[in-house]
Amino acid sequence: MTMQAMIDEWYPVGLFSQLDSAGRTTALMGEPIEVACDADGNAKVTGGDGRVLPVRVRYGHVWSSLGEPKKELFPIPEADQPGRRFVDVGVVRVRCSPLRAVENFLDIAHFPFVHTDILGAEPHTEVQNYKVEIREEEDEVWATQVKFYQPQAAKSASGGITTEYMYRVPAPTCSVLYKTCPPRPSEWDVITLFVQPLAEDLCDVWPWMALFDDETAMTDLIHFQQTIFLQDRSILENQIPRLLPLDPGMEIPTRADLTSIAYRRWLKRHNYTYGAQLVAQ
């Protein structure tokens, strides 16, 4: 299976705040790598063969690539907005395709059933019409005008509200979610999913948030988000097939799956197939 298209992308490989000179060993697309601080305090990533890999430090994370990225790491303008709190949620290891992890993040229909009484609740299970597009200029998948009733949309929310969402996929294993900010209705809270592909069926998921919330303790913000993702993990690890099917006939989509359909089409267009299943088996 060709991997070149995805080899030349940027991937999260650790939290910058946790780096030290001793370093830590992890993996990227099956290759062992070491992530450490150099003598000047800069992040350094080394491949299994000793070669120094490209590095960026952004959004609290160290990013690297086994190849030669053709473009810069995608921008998140809110990361430079004064007054926001930036939350390094940590890491969750999941036995699933990295592409599956992203697709699950894009799925709103599961809220009432997997995140019961937090992000959704019965009988509010219907997904209203929303808009999905592949924005050619940015080369990103976007879903907008997504609305869903939520008993507790955020740690800062008190009582149920109808939350509006926007989803953005700027890279094959990353997604950015913009959602209603309860304390500041004119702004969006930003919740991201940065996925590190360890292997085709194993990944480390690094959620990160940029919020307007001056009240909630940092540990509570982290715990809230980790709770959500641990609920997702049990679903992800039981999905069959483990890899993400790119053939539209292999899984039956519903109207609520428009974002997933666009994401799979976009992956196929770019030959982003690491972690994908291309034909029915």
UniProtKB/TrEMBL annotation:
Gene3D superfamilies: Naphthalene 1,2-dioxygenase Alpha Subunit, Chain A, domain 1 (3.90.380.10). The keyword Oxidoreductase applies. The keyword Oxidoreductase applies. Signal peptide: none annotated. Pfam families: VanA_C. Keywords: Dioxygenase, Oxidoreductase, Plasmid. InterPro entries: Cholesterol_7-desaturase, VanA_C_cat. GO terms for molecular function: dioxygenase activity. Residues 94-269 form the Vanillate O-demethylase oxygenase-like C-terminal catalytic domain. PANTHER family: 3-KETOSTEROID-9-ALPHA-MONOOXYGENASE, OXYGENASE COMPONENT, IRON-SULFUR DOMAIN CONTAINING PROTEIN. This is Aromatic ring-hydroxylating dioxygenase subunit alpha.
